[in-house]
Amino acid sequence: MGEAVVADFVGRFHTADMKRTEPVTGRVLLSRKRLVLAHDGGKTTIPLSSVSDINVGTVPAKLSEFFSDTITLAYSIDDGRNVAVIESGGDNVGRFKTVLFKTLLGGHKVKVKHPAKVGGRVTDASTKTAKLKLSKGSLRIVTRDGSVTIDLSTVTNFRRGQYDIAGKKRPTIEVTHMHNGTAKTTFISLPNNRKLNLLGRYLQLEYKDVMEEIAEIEISPEQTEVLVSLYSAGGQAKLGEIVTGDVATVQLVLETLRKNALISENGSALSLTAKGRVVVTEQIEDVNM
Fold first, then answer.
1. Average pLDDT over residues 119-148
2. Helix crossing, 92-105 with 193-215: angle to 10°?
3. In CATH, what number is assigned to the domain containing residue 35?
4. Which of 10, 142, 205, 280 maximizes the CB count within 10 A of its CB?
5. Does the keyword Transferase apply (predicted)?
6. Are 53 and 201 in contact (CB under 8 A)?
């Protein structure tokens, strides 16, 4: 490839330029500039600068019968939009996803405002130039003054848009995450909409994992009452301030919430975890808070 390879494994893949409908088996090679899918019949080279979207587990309908555990890339070359689908065994797809996003976004300069909000309150934080550092399960923002690490399992919400950052409308992601029981919001402004879309997709894939875990949790009315009370109290409160009733019943409810990682305890106070906050905001929106 002429440059250092950061990923190299055997997989099955299909690209739009193949003269066949079935996938082939070959080598998947990733450098910091390009992705190469090589097989006996030739190879497909995808410049990383052309990649506009990435998804995991979603396959185009005409190829769904051929694939199971996959990663799909959308890319544009010569104004033509193309799709490449890659499948591999073991944990290769999961590891490749992390390496690919890290290669696409890591080290790029961004504009950051942190924390832009604390508990919903707008702060006077200044905008700083920073670099993104991605690793499995975390997003690190490095400035001259230090760094901020966002544990992606604590992200409760994010949205994309054009925000006024440093006196100019810029493609920006607003990320809300939990830190020591408090919701903090970080604004990250990317150089262009392509990179904004890629970072948004990375967060979406991590957020999807949390939502899949939450979907398997059954929440009783008593548990819901505790979660909503904590949410209304700002995410943290003493037990006596939010719960009344039979002690044995209350302890059973709390134990179940702790077991499902929806609340945590800090001394005499109870706190909503990131997962608990998502349950409140995403699954019980019909509750009058």
1. 91
2. 150
3. 2.30.29.30
4. 280
5. no
6. yes
Neighbouring residues of 224: CB distance < 8 A, sequence distance ≥ 6: 284, 287
Pairs from 124-130 (Cβ < 8 Å, separation ≥ 24) = 127/165, 127/166, 127/187, 127/189
User: For residue 274, how many other CB atoms are within 10 A of its CB?
Assistant: 23
* % of the chain with per-residue pLDDT over 90: 45
On whether residue 38 sits in a domain, the answer given is yes
Tell me the mean pLDDT in the region 46-68.
82
Domain span at residue 235? 221-283
Could you tell me if 197 and 239 lie in one domain? no
pLDDT value at residue 61: 67
Q: What is the pLDDT of residue 284?
A: 52
177 domain-assigned: yes
**Which amino acid belongs to residue 147?**
S
Radius of gyration of the chain (CA): 22
pLDDT band at 64 (very low <50, low <70, confident <90, very high): low
Q: Distance (Å, rounded) from C-alpha 135 to C-alpha 102? A: 7
pTM of the model: 0.77
Total count of domains within the chain: 3
90 Ramachandran zone, left/alpha/beta (phi>0; psi -120 to 50): left
Q: What is the dihedral of CA 281, 282, 285, 287, to 10 degrees?
A: -70
DSSP string, 202-262: HHHHHHHHHHHHHHT----HHHHHHHHHHHHTTSEEEHHHH--S-HHHHHHHHHHHHHTTS
| In a shared domain, residues 202 and 270 | no
What are the φ/ψ torsions at residue 261 (nearest 5 degrees)? Answer: 60, 40
Chain segment 213-262, per-residue pLDDT in tens: 778 888 888 898 889 888 888 778 888 888 777 778 888 999 999 999 89
The rounded distance, in Å, linking the Cα atoms of 143 and 260 is 36
127 & 39 share domain: no
